[in-house]
Amino acid sequence: MTPPTDHDSLLARLLGPAEPELTCEECFEQLDRYVELELAGADADGRIPGMRPHLEGCPACDEDHASLLAFVAAQRAGG
Q1: What is the C-alpha separation between 33 and 44, in angstroms, rounded?
Q2: pLDDT tens digits for 15-72?
Q3: Which in 17, 26, 52, 66 has the greatest CB count within 10 A?
Q4: pLDDT (tens digit, 9 = 90+) per residue, 52-62?
Q5: Structural contact between residues 48 and 33, judged by C-beta atoms closer than 8 angstroms
Q6: Both ends of the chain: CA-CA distance in Å?
Q7: Do residues 26 and 50 lie in contact, with contact meaning Cβ atoms separated by under 8 Å?
Q8: CA dist 79 → 41, 72, 74 (Å)
Q9: Are 23 and 9 a contacting pair, CB within 8 Å?
Q10: Residues 57, 4: Cα–Cα separation, whole Å
Q11: How far apart are the C-alpha atoms of 66 and 27, rounded to whole Å?
């Protein structure tokens, strides 16, 4: 199997995910819970289906996720 190329990545983004995904609004509503599940080591993707494909395809929501994850993790670490 050959490694993915930039063209493969672009094509995947254009075609969208193969599985159902959340909308931006649904993502925003579930983001706190998703981050809490991730930090607890729970199966966040199994508990909130569609979140991961949405984050992989939506740069704005993915940025919100990364920021919230870093913030909450730092708060828990005492920072």
Answers
A1: 8
A2: 555 677 899 999 999 999 999 999 999 999 999 999 999 998 899 999 999 999 999 9
A3: 52
A4: 999 988 999 99
A5: yes
A6: 44
A7: yes
A8: 20, 10, 5
A9: no
A10: 17
A11: 13
